[in-house]
Specification:
Helix content: over 70%
Largest sheet: none
Structural class: mainly alpha
Number of strands: 0
Radius of gyration: 33 Å
């Protein structure tokens, strides 16, 4: 009986190949994009946390460097508040420049 699939010797391998193609298609359409999105989120958040950490360490280092630099001419107490004043003026100036660029002049 030629219509009976159980008598065909290639039936099992063709069935397995068809299932393998379907599973591969589903994996390519669903799992791989999901893995790529999750990896992008994880590595992006790690990069943001690392950048924030580096900026904080840089600011702390600048403040400590200014303490030591101003300590050459002034007493320790005066050098500390002078460095705080210098950093404050610096950040306020940057903030004012950024706020000015926020609204375009017409």
């Amino acid at each position: 009986m030629p219509s009976n699939p159980f008598t065909d010797p290639q039936w099992a391998s063709r069935t397995v190949d068809a299932i393998d193609r379907i599973v591969g298609l589903v994996r390519d359409r669903t799992t791989r994009p999901a893995v790529a999105i999750v990896r992008a989120l994880i590595f992006g958040s790690m990069a943001v946390v690392g950048a924030v950490f580096l900026v904080i360490i840089l600011v702390i280092g600048c403040i400590r460097g200014l303490h030591s630099f101003f300590d050459i001419w002034w007493s320790r107490d005066t050098a500390v508040w002078a460095s705080y004043l210098f950093i404050g003026v610096f950040f306020c100036t940057i903030g004012m420049l950024l706020m000015r660029r926020r609204h375009p002049q017409e």
